[in-house]
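User: Okay, second chain of the day. Same drill as before: sequence in, structure tokens out.
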Amino acid sequence: MHKSKKLSKLSEISHGFFNKNGGVSKGIYKSLNCGIGSKDKKNNIKRNLNIVKSRLGTNSRQIFFVKQTHSNKFIFLNKNSNIKNRSIKADAIICEKKKTPIAILTADCVPILIYDKSRKMIAAIHAGWRGAFKGIIQKVIKYMLNKKCNPRNMIVAIGPSISKNNYEVKRQFKDKFVKKKRGNIEFFTFKKNKIYFDLTNYVKKQVKLNLIKNIDLINIDTFNKRNNFFSARRSLKLNHNDYGRNISIIMIN
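Assistant: Same drill. Structure tokens below.
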């Protein structure tokens, strides 16, 4: 498990960016696969989620998830919310409920955890290129600001994701981003007739647009096998028929 140095200074929350180590799953899912939608054995996933809860230090009955669809939709859990787990299609969760761990799953996409230390509000965002392109980061932060959060009090931890060195894209992909905003060309690198996309720093730029300066970027490449993260791109390269998912989680204690 990796932690944000900035978030770790705050005793009122618990969080973690988990890699694939420390679970019970076998084969291509070895070992801490938390992918509820994967083809792994359901009992193994359940046991893995219990391991995550234990390491987070919570006895909460369950971890709250949404059904991720690479969208720009989010859900808000207020203090009285009684929404069924995984009942809503979205890619981010905003929460002000105590003792309610919220989490998102990734396998190369960018996990983002947010905390406003004055407003006592948290968020977890699954930001793949589609969600980031559609503005999910901006939408979540704008909603938090409308709920009386303040950029000066917000800490944003950007977790491990695929690095630009391993994120090769097509020309049409690059053109889509540049057409939206000419300045987006800065997130593309050209090498030996190949194009590479810097998703992590694209995400960071989206955060900074909201005048948030307290940003912790955990610069770990999920594609690199040595870092022990699940990676959709690496699994595709190895011709696997599925892949495990990494969990990123945060809770107000």
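The chain has seven helices and twelve strands.

User: Thanks, on to the next one.
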